[in-house]
């Protein structure tokens, strides 16, 4: 597994650590899950945006 270095504000990291601790998970597990959820949501949002743009284009061409 690859490792990356990410910078974030101390307060933000404290919040992440608190959630991870409450859920008895590692910081890495929590961040991986958050990014997986972001990728799913981003894909859905981009698909909806593409469909909306296609509909706008169709309307313009009619």
Structural notes for this entry:
The structure is a single chain. With 62 residues, the chain is an all-alpha fold. It is built from 2 helices and no strands. Helix 1 packs across helix 2 (27-61). 0% of the residues are buried. The mean pLDDT is 88.
- What is the CA–CA distance across the termini? 51 Å
Q: How many strands, what sense, and barrel or not for the largest sheet?
A: none
Radius of gyration: 19 Å
The structure class reads mainly alpha
Strand elements, count: 0
Strand content: under 5%
Number of helices: 2
The overall pLDDT average reads 88
Q: What is the helix/strand order?
A: HH
Instruction: List the uncertain runs.
Output: none
Shape: elongated
Q: What's the SSE blueprint?
A:
Blueprint: H1 10-22, H2 27-61
Helix pairs in contact: 1-2
